[in-house]
Write a structure and sequence with these properties.
With 500 residues, the chain is α+β, with helices and mostly antiparallel strands. It has 25 helices and five strands. The chain is elongated and about 90 Å long.
Length: 500
């Protein structure tokens, strides 16, 4: 079955067309729609790691805008002049209590008014711009509060610091502005990408997310550091290479491969362990290399040998390889659960589960660079923040673990299907080969396996992939994730040491 073209929405952003959404009031009902909208935007520009951060920021701005509009209606209802200092001082205390206890009523009161908020975005050459425009003129008091919070946010490392100092003991919106700046700054986005614009009949906040945070020449030098690291990796072990060559022979037999594998006791033991793993289903335990080779199957042996070779080199070189193998095996099992449950492309089951084992090889390099290399990169990046996430690290470094993994897999001459999976497992729509569906399978399984780590949810998944796998709602997605998690936990003791 053919797959519908993905990211058709992307053309709107790349052409610079302004995409808008109008809100009268923003409440929990609007959250799914906003989440989907943000997912479309960030996927179109390869900034998926910002999805949840942008959702938090834009939600805060929409709520603040609706709160400001609600304030204007409330003052009218109370017969108070919003622009009169004495009336404002008296009314704001009443409004704070009203908003705290009757927030829904405040928002609903806006539906019969002309107040609205427009959320829009436009893709430009160097950045993407989000605009939240309120069709109400800002009060001097409101503007001063916002500007003060912008200035105050510089000294806070996290939102807890801001709460402890009670930055706004009159109106809670001040903390929202601080939160926005903390989130942007901790994501590697400088404060100057926040702008407040006001006019006689509108108030607008602009958030600009740059495509690159460092000069291209520094980005090139960073990539050179990483490429040197990849080039310094040794070739696959000689015995592994010999087994790969034998496995590729058209007339090869199980006996021939088993005989060669038995020459290296470590490889023989690995074959038996993998053959007995959940990767190849629940079977009677086997004890011989011949039985192990037979169970794995001739078409899978090359990939298994590649995985064993990668394990031998990377495990001896990188300190954080346990994290990568643990997640890779989990993704591999989720691939198995997905294909068995949906009964789609079941013929790809074994090749997809094995490819999933290798999809994150590049993460080992990015996560485990030695201190001198990390310091070089941080100097080039002009960054002294040591507590940023892996995805932010990739964004600010200017390359991704997929790119690094692809370089590694090219060096070791991986087959085309694994090359494509490593390169496109986060962006399967970019894969134009026959391996597109393989990339989509691992893309979805990878997200499902990462739930709970802040790396995705139902709304971050490309909708066409969800449709193809007949996942029609957030409820379907969550229930599937719960089923997979339960099944996975049942096998934990069987797999936890497979590649460690």
């Amino acid at each position: 079955m053919s797959i519908p073209p993905l990211i058709t929405f992307q053309e709107d952003f790349l052409s610079g067309k302004l995409i808008t959404k109008e809100y009268v009031h923003f409440s929990e009902v609007d959250c799914p729609e906003l989440d989907v909208w943000i997912g479309r935007v960030v996927r179109s520009i390869s900034l998926e790691f910002l999805h949840e951060i942008l959702f938090t920021i834009l939600s805060e701005l929409l709520v603040n805008g609706c709160k400001a509009n609600g304030k204007r209606i409330f003052f009218q209802e109370q017969g108070l002049d919003l622009w009169n200092e004495k009336d404002y001082a008296r009314g704001i205390i009443l409004y704070k209590d009203e908003f705290g206890h009757n927030r829904k009523r405040v928002f609903l009161s806006l539906e019969k008014t002309n107040y609205s908020i427009i959320l829009s975005t436009v893709y430009k050459e160097d950045f993407i711009e989000f605009r939240v425009r309120n069709n109400a003129k800002i009060l001097p008091e409101e503007k001063n509060r916002i500007l003060k919070r912008v200035q105050a946010s510089v000294k806070y490392k996290n939102i807890n610091d801001a709460y402890r100092e009670s930055v706004d003991n009159e109106e809670s919106s001040g903390l929202g502005i601080v939160l926005i700046h903390i989130l942007l700054r901790n994501s590697g986005i400088p404060n100057q990408f926040f702008e407040l614009v006001t006019g006689d009949d509108f108030t607008e906040v602009i958030i600009r997310i740059p495509k690159q945070l460092i000069p291209k020449e520094n980005q090139t030098r960073i990539k050179e550091i990483l490429i040197r690291e990849v080039n310094s990796l040794p070739p696959l072990p000689a015995q592994i290479n010999k087994l790969i060559i034998i496995a590729k022979k058209k007339d090869v037999t199980f006996h021939e491969i088993a005989t060669e594998a038995e020459k290296d006791p470590a490889i023989a033991a690995e074959i038996i362990k993998i053959a007995n793993s959940p990767l190849f289903g629940v079977h009677k335990s086997i004890v011989s290399v011949f039985e192990g080779v037979k169970r794995i199957g001739l078409k899978n042996l090359e990939s298994i040998f590649l995985a064993l070779g990668a394990k031998k080199i990377l495990n001896s070189r990188y300190a954080k390889q346990v994290l990568v193998w643990t997640h890779s095996f989990k993704t591999s099992m989720y691939v198995k659960f997905l294909l068995e449950e949906k009964r789609k492309h079941i013929q790809l089951l074994e090749s997809a589960t094995i490819a999933a084992l290798l999809h994150d090889l590049g993460r080992m390099v990015l996560l485990s660079l030695d201190l001198s290399q990390v310091n070089q990169i941080r100097v080039l990046r002009s960054d002294d923040n040591t507590e940023i996430s892996e995805w932010v690290e990739e964004y600010t470094v200017g390359t991704t673990h997929s790119e690094i993994g692809y370089l590694i897999s090219e060096k070791w001459r991986f087959p085309e299907e694994i090359l494509d999976v490593i390169r496109y497992h986060h962006k399967p729509w970019q894969c134009k080969t026959r391996n597109n569906i393989l990339c989509q399978i691992i893309y979805l399984a990878d997200i499902l396996a990462n739930i709970g780590k802040g790396k995705g949810n139902y709304f971050t998944v490309e909708p066409e992939v969800l449709d193809y796998f007949e996942i029609h709602s957030e409820k379907d997605f969550r229930e599937m994730q719960d089923r997979f998690k339960i099944n996975f936990e049942e096998h934990r003791e069987e797999y936890q040491n497979l590649f460690i």
